[in-house]
Amino acid sequence: MEAATLSGSLPRLKLSASNHKLSWSQGRSIISVSCRPSGQLHDTVSSSSSTDRRVTISGGLYELSPAPKRNPVGQTHCATSAGAYTYGESSLESHSHAAEDKVGVLLLNLGGPETLHDVQPFLFNLFADPDIIRLPRLFQFLQRPLAQLISVLRAPKSKEGYAAIGGGSPLRKITDEQAHAIKMALEAKGMSAIVYVGMRYWYPFTEEAIHQIKRDRITRLVVLPLYPQFSISTTGSSLRVLQNIFREDAYLSRLPVSIIQSWYQREGYIKSMADLIGKELEQFPKPEEVMIFFSAHGVPVSYIVDAGDPYKDQMEECIYLIMKELKARGFSNDHTLAYQSRVGPVQWLKPYTDEVLVELGQKGVKSLLAVPVSFVSEHIETLEEIDMEYKHLALESGVENWGRVPALGCTSSFITDLADAVVEALPSAKAISTSSSTSEEADYDIFRCAIKMLFGSILAFVLLFSPKMILACKNYLL
Ligand SMILES: C=CC1=C(C)c2cc3[nH]c(cc4nc(cc5[nH]c(cc1n2)c(C)c5CCC(=O)O)C(CCC(=O)O)=C4C)c(C)c3C=C
Ligand SMILES: [Fe+2]
């Protein structure tokens, strides 16, 4: 497990010589704070529903204006459909107990549209994230117009996918259930904690969860991203949101925090994955002949090559550990790893899942077991892409027996392991040191920003009408 504390300002992600260790350092980077005000990304979060969900920034904290049906501030999770885990005390009560040790666990996840109406604004939030579409600094002011364009272009295709799995993402419900299960597992270990869910691109937003953490006067916090492997585009992006909020807030910047950056190599997780794979293998007529097909969500190659994202290394190590565990249990199946869900015009990690499936079918592989490995809940890419599109493609290419390992969800050995990770991380919780820039630095930043915007506008104007740009936009439709 890699645990870290949110420290200082403007982190930079770099791979150390061992290639598996992350270290933060200062400087220009993908996780650095851009010159626009923090929170701008969500300040016009909108949806096609009539409810106003605009997020404004006040005193460094994000406050949601009333969204009574789903997300009234302060009750983000109290009335979830799972309904089982609550924040415990109201903010008034928590103030009177301020001296007590109140442990919080913040689960970070991606979030997903709950209805088809949510799809376009959800996609807007996703593409407006500078960790998802990485524009050169000069063009960063184009992030939101571009996100608007791409989200509108992509929405029809995405909606088809969400419609095929029942009209929305199951992510919120499953994550709420995991939160409840982790709370219970912690209680069984003698640790009382309030477990929060913070989504990056949809409700309940990370900002809401942090707001609630503050209201609850939590005294120590463990941050647990629900991604086994670290990627700049997932955990990194959520941590950037956290850091932007924490460094601006007196209470939060003093709150001892411990971050579990990745946990793909934890024994409990590896064993839980091996349990699920072993169980599915037994469903095949000849288990020993089944090819184990790990399918991970892809990222653009530039993340790995240019930005030092450890995602690919961690993924490969994760697969190695799962296979080692399976071998120790007597399974000696062949296996392969491929990457799915590419979006847009750039090169993504290879090999691509769809291409490998066709190759394997053509080579005569008759039995395949698909294993989603980058995510621990069922979601659109398991339920639609794997179960429908890839299954169809594999059968069409000559595969005769197809199986799919379910996502871990609330598997008890897995939840227990996550609870262990929290218990282990808690002692290393440390306060964030505040670092506010001087007014001269701020003036200089504004000046630099203005110059960049001027030159950027000219360049953008030229680029926007180039054939290459038009082709790139078309690619988001596919
Ligand atoms: C480890 C998991 C994930 C990585 C890495 C990741 C990177 C990444 N994703 C996109 C674009 C999209 N992702 C979408 C949905 C989506 N992505 C993940 C996980 C990872 N993404 C999940 C779990 C989900 C599904 C959520 C749900 O609603 O169930 C979507 C929307 C769906 C679609 O239109 O296909 C997009 C778009 C990029 C560009 C990227 C890396 C840069
Ligand atoms: Fe994704």
Tell me what the structure shows.
Catalyzes the ferrous insertion into protoporphyrin IX. One of its GO terms (molecular function) is ferrochelatase activity. Pathway: Porphyrin-containing compound metabolism; protoheme biosynthesis; protoheme from protoporphyrin-IX: step 1/1. With 478 residues, this protein is α/β, with parallel strands linked by helices. The chain has 2 domains: 103-264 and 413-462, Rossmann fold (3-Layer(aba) Sandwich); 268-408, Rossmann fold. It is 42% helix and 14% strand. The chain has 15 helices and 13 strands. The chain has helices at residues 91-96, 119-127, 143-164, 171-188, 206-215, 232-246, 250-254, 267-281, 301-305, 311-328, 353-363, 380-396, 412-425, 439-464, 467-475; strands at 2-4, 13-15, 22-24, 55-58, 61-64, 103-109, 193-199, 220-225, 257-262, 291-297, 335-340, 367-372, 401-404. The protein has a 5-stranded mixed β-sheet with strand order 1-9-8-6-7, sandwiched between helices. Helix 2 packs across helix 3 (143-164). The two termini are 37 Å apart. The model is unreliable at 7-98 and 437-442 (pLDDT under 50). It binds the ligand C=CC1=C(C)c2cc3[nH]c(cc4nc(cc5[nH]c(cc1n2)c(C)c5CCC(=O)O)C(CCC(=O)O)=C4C)c(C)c3C=C and fe (ii) ion.
How many domains would you count in the coordinates? 2
The fraction of residues in strands falls at 5-15%
Number of strands: 13
CATH fold topology of the largest domain:
Rossmann fold
Small molecules (ligands, ions, cofactors) in the structure: the ligand C=CC1=C(C)c2cc3[nH]c(cc4nc(cc5[nH]c(cc1n2)c(C)c5CCC(=O)O)C(CCC(=O)O)=C4C)c(C)c3C=C, fe (ii) ion
The largest sheet, given as strand count, sense and whether it forms a barrel, is: 5 strands, mixed
- How far the N terminus sits from the C terminus, by CA atoms, comes to 37 Å
CA gyration radius, whole angstroms:
22 Å
How does CATH name the architecture of the largest domain?
3-Layer(aba) Sandwich
Question: Would you list the SSEs in sequence order as H and E?
Answer: EEEEEHEHHHEHEHHEHEHHEHEHEHHH
Family: Belongs to the ferrochelatase family.
Protein name: Ferrochelatase
Subcellular location: Plastid, Chloroplast
Enzyme class: lyase
